[in-house]
Amino acid sequence: MGSCKLFVGFIFAIIFLTGTHQTTAKKDKRIHIYQLQKGNFSMKFTNYGATLISLVVPDRNGMLDDIVLGYENIHDYKNDTTYFGGIVGRVANRIGGAQFCLNGTCYKLVANDGNNTLHGGKVGFSDVIWSVKNYQNDSQITFTYNSFDGEEGFPGNLTVAVTYQIIGTNKLQIKMVAKALNKPTPVNLASDTYWNLAGHADTGGILSHRLQLYAQNYTPVDSNLIPNGQIRSVNDTAYDFRTPQIIGSRIHELPGGYDINYVLVNSSKGKHLNKAAVLEEENSGRWMEIWTNQPGIQVYTANNLNRVKGKGGAIYRKYAGVCLETQGFPDSVNYPKFPSQIVNPGQTYQHTMVYRFTAR
User: Fold this and answer.
1) pLDDT per residue as tens, the chain (360 positions)
2) CB–CB of 84/69 below 8 Å?
3) Burial (Cβ within 10 Å: 0-12, 13-18, ≥19) of residue 125
4) What is the spatial distance between Cα 144 and Cα 51, in angstroms, rounded to a whole number?
5) CA nearest neighbour of 163 among 351, 323, 348, 358
6) 90: cis peptide before it, omega within 30°?
7) d(Cα 291, Cα 353) in Å, to the nearest integer?
8) Which 8-state DSSP code applies to residue 127?
9) Fewest CB within a 10 Å sphere: which of 37, 50, 240, 315?
10) How far, CA to CA in Å, does 281 sit from each of 54, 89, 172, 173?
11) In the chain, which residue ranges form alpha helices assigned H by DSSP?
């Protein structure tokens, strides 16, 4: 087992978190940095939010770049409003009206996005300290968290484990497992990583990236980005990425940019993985393929970034990165026609995604 504290590229003070939201975390639990590396494929994490803070891969000429957006220090992660690299939940994405009803009981959640709940509430899973186990610095790390009954308004106790694992020499697998202990509860976990295949500090952003999505439909939203319950074809819209398209080619047709859930083709919620997306950056030659067992993928083009100070002195502006978040449909708890996110006691939620990186 390798060192549990690696500070290369980041200066993170080992500090204690304070605040009433740390009910389930021991007060002496500290924040650390962890690294996985195999050859020239490497990544770093922190147990604050089970967060991916860097991922370094070569371009077609062998030049290494960090291709995920992030912060320079833990203070910025603690005060983050972007969710850079964090595991978001208990329910990722939005829940309209910050409420839902289940088995005759209605639950009022913490609203943190106007009148709605976003990424689990004011203090979601990306804002708590996780425990660490099975850390092997050349292959994998597992973060665990025990979510208590009533946390951010959600019912029931829930155990969560997220494992990051290097597969081969160029694949990252993220496996999320959750178990409801005593009450039915919605679960929809996601990795909120912002990608820029040219390098996180590239000032050109991601508008020139080419994206392909294995999706024929999307879930339309209202002005507050809450789904209206419909599933609509991408045909003849700016949402059509069935064939590879430059992200910026039609972004002007949308209010602000992309922030929408796509319905994946041949999606399943079992063990079988299906290809969800391919992202390409021409200058570096980097490609990223995403495979998942989830029914949806949220595409977000960092529309709200406004001179955010990132790691290494980088300044992130609008469209500096793109999120490709495999997950269940947003607001599924309020739309029975959407794939259910309810996990009953004795059942296990499993969400797996694989990222494959190449350069051509």
Assistant:
1) 333 333 333 333 333 333 333 333 334 479 999 999 999 999 999 999 999 999 999 999 999 999 999 999 999 999 989 999 999 999 999 999 999 999 999 999 999 999 999 999 999 999 999 999 999 999 999 999 999 999 999 999 999 999 999 999 999 999 999 999 999 999 999 999 999 999 999 999 999 999 999 999 999 999 999 999 999 999 999 999 999 999 999 999 999 999 999 999 976 555 689 999 999 999 999 999 999 999 999 999 999 999 999 999 999 999 999 999 999 999 999 999 999 999 999 999 999 999 999 999
2) yes
3) buried
4) 12
5) 351
6) yes
7) 5
8) G
9) 315
10) 18, 30, 19, 21
11) 74-78
The vertex-6 CA angle with 178 and 356, nearest 5°, equals 55
Partners of 45 in beta bridges: 34, 52
At 230 the three-state DSSP class reads: coil
The residue behind tokens 């570096």 is 284
Tokens of 21: 């939201």
Nearest CA-CA partner of 309 in 9, 82, 60: 82
d(C-alpha 16, C-alpha 22), whole Å: 11
Give the Å distances, CA to CA, from 149 to 24, 162, 181, 213, 329.
Answer: 10, 20, 10, 37, 23
What tokens does 77 get?
């992660």
